[in-house]
Automatic annotation (TrEMBL):
Catalyses which reaction(s): H(+)(in) = H(+)(out)
Subunit structure: Component of the ATP synthase complex composed at least of ATP5F1A/subunit alpha, ATP5F1B/subunit beta, ATP5MC1/subunit c (homooctomer), MT-ATP6/subunit a, MT-ATP8/subunit 8, ATP5ME/subunit e, ATP5MF/subunit f, ATP5MG/subunit g, ATP5MK/subunit k, ATP5MJ/subunit j, ATP5F1C/subunit gamma, ATP5F1D/subunit delta, ATP5F1E/subunit epsilon, ATP5PF/subunit F6, ATP5PB/subunit b, ATP5PD/subunit d, ATP5PO/subunit OSCP.
Name of protein: ATP synthase subunit a
InterPro entries given in the database record: ATP_synth_F0_asu, ATP_synth_F0_asu_AS, ATP_synth_F0_asu_bact/mt, F0_ATP_A_sf
Length: 227
């Protein structure tokens, strides 16, 4: 039973070729490209409005130096939301349930913010490792603790996204299996379970969007510390 539950998180293959790359290119294929026409479709107008609003909210805590990252962070947000939402469809695979992919997204971006801070303002960047007014005996301990907390940031980003999506998918599969099994013996309980399943699916839609936003928001905060 345990093996069958976690089979949904295995990377699918076709003729021995992993299909994760195909799943990752799907978001870029789905969205239409802007056109040179004076009047765009309603979907393009809605897409442009959403991107503009999100970019404005994203750049609020950032100084002017961090505005160069707007295109990258906005693209990452749309990419994560699309993959998370597509994974809620039946018979689909969610690449963001793989810790390797999430760490592959989090580690280079986090490292870029650290390198940016070390290059532009090394004194300020290293000053985060030692809070002001620290007693002398606690200085070595706090430096070690702050260094560990610095290097654990990409791991926390990846694990948070993976754990939330994995837990939601497992709950959906468990409740849907229970509703199917109870349908023949206890229809009333099966109907109640199906109602819970619908509510849980709506909750997972919200979680898919919120987790993508939290992932990008934390990267923005890391960037603000080093800009």
């Amino acid at each position: 039973m345990t093996v069958s539950l976690f089979d949904q998180f295995m990377s699918p293959t076709l003729l021995g070729i992993p299909l994760m790359a195909l799943a990752m290119t799907l978001p870029w294929i789905m969205y239409p490209a802007p056109t040179a026409r004076w009047l765009n479709s309603r979907f393009l107008a809605l897409q442009g409005w959403f991107i503009n609003r999100f970019t404005q909210q994203l750049l609020l805590p950032l100084s002017l130096g961090g505005h160069k990252w707007a295109a990258l962070l906005t693209s990452l947000m749309i990419f994560l939301i699309t993959m998370n939402m597509l994974g809620l469809l039946p018979y689909t695979f969610t690449p963001t349930t793989q810790l390797s992919l999430n760490l592959g997204l989090a580690t280079p971006l986090w490292l870029a913010t650290v390198i940016l801070g070390m290059r532009n303002q090394p004194t300020h960047a290293l000053g985060h490792l030692l809070p002001e007014g620290t007693p002398g005996p606690l200085i070595p301990v706090l430096i070690v603790i702050e260094t560990i907390s610095l290097f654990i940031r990409p791991l926390a980003l990846g694990v948070r996204l993976t754990a939330n999506l994995t837990a939601g998918h497992l709950l959906i599969q468990l409740i849907s299996t229970a509703a199917f099994v109870l349908l023949s013996s206890m229809p009333a309980v099966a109907l109640l379970t199906s109602t819970v399943l619908v509510l849980l699916t709506l909750l997972e839609v919200a979680v898919a969007m919120i987790q993508a936003y939290v992932f990008v928001l934390l990267l923005t905060l890391y960037l603000q510390e080093n800009v």
